Amino acid sequence: MSKVLIIGAGGVGTVVAHKVAQNTDVFTEIMLASRTKSKCDRIAEDIFNRYNVKIQTAQVDADVVEDLVALFKSFGPKIVINVALPYQDLTIMEACLQAGCNYLDTANYEPKDEAHFEYSWQWAYHDRFKEAGLCAILGCGFDPGCSAVYTAYAAKHHFDEMHYLDIVDCNAGDHHKAFATNFNPEINIREITQNGRYWQDGQWVTTGPLEFHQPITYPEIGPRESYLLYHEELESLVKNFPTIKRARFWMTFGQEYLTHLRVIQNIGMARIDEIDYNGQKIVPLQFLKAVLPAPEELGENYTGYTSIGCRIRGVKDGQPRTYYIYNNCSHQEAYRETGTQGVSYTTGVPAMTGAYMFLTGEWTGAGVFNVEEFNPDPFLKKVAESGLPWHEVIDGDLEL
Ligand code: NDP
Question: How many angstroms separate the alpha carbon of residue 152 from the centre of ligand 1?
Answer without folding.
Answer: 27
